[in-house]
Each structure stands twice: as C-alpha cells, then as structure tokens.
Amino acid sequence: MRFLPCLYAFLGCISFCFIFQVRKPLFIFLCSAIGAVSWGVYLLAEPLGSDAVRCFVATIVVSALAELLARLLKAPATIFLVIGIIPLVPGGGLYYTMDYLLDKNFPMFSQVGLQTASTAAAIAVGASMVTSIVRMLTWRRHPQA
Prior knowledge:
By secondary structure, this protein is mainly alpha-helical. The protein is 79% helix and 0% strand. α1 crosses α2, α2 runs antiparallel to α3 and α5 runs antiparallel to α6. The longest helix has 36 residues. The protein is globular.
C-alpha cells in the first residue's frame, strides 16, 4: 500500500501527457512510468532526510531515464523529463508560501519559502547536472567540426 501513490503519480502524468500533446501511446506510457518511478525513488529516499535531497536523487534518476529513452526512441529528452518530474514539483509548498505571505505570517513564510525554493533548486540542479554530463560524454564521441 505504500507505493499506491506511485500509481497516482502515473495517472497524473498521463493527464499531463495530454496537456503537453504527447500523442504516441508508447510515449504516454513511458512518460507516465517515469513519473511513477520518480515518486517511487522519492519515497525510497526517505532515509536521506530533507525533501530537497530526496527530490535531487529522484531527479537524477528521472533525468538519466529521460536521456536514455531519448537515445533509444530518437525523441527529445525534454518530453520524458518534464512529465517525469511533475510529481516532484513542490506545488503545495508554493501554495502555502503565498498563503503565509498574504496572511503576513512572515516566520512561516520564510521557513516554508526556503524549503520550497531549496526543493525547486534541487530539481533544477539534478536535471541540469545529468543533462550536462550526457552532453559532455556525447560531445567527446561526436565533436562538432
């Protein structure tokens, strides 16, 4: 029952496939499966502590899977990456940060805002790190003239 949220992440990612106009059924399935994997890795990384670290690890896995599938299926990695990280996006944190700001609860605004910003930064750093490593490795094999 602990990984039932992975099924919910899978279903939610299917919805985003339609929003982003992913048309091929195989791509819809794979994008949604990556979303489920991202949430599964996030749940498995619970012993690591903070949400930011857990999101960082999950984003590294998602980004690596996106790059791998992009090479195998000759498709842009962005499709798999953007939809795969949807379950990790700290939407609740953004909501509560703005709620505390509007309520003028500045101590909670700064605390929740810092947590949300660190989680978003961890997602950005994880994705760009893997993408950069993959580009460096493929550039060495196929340098531009």
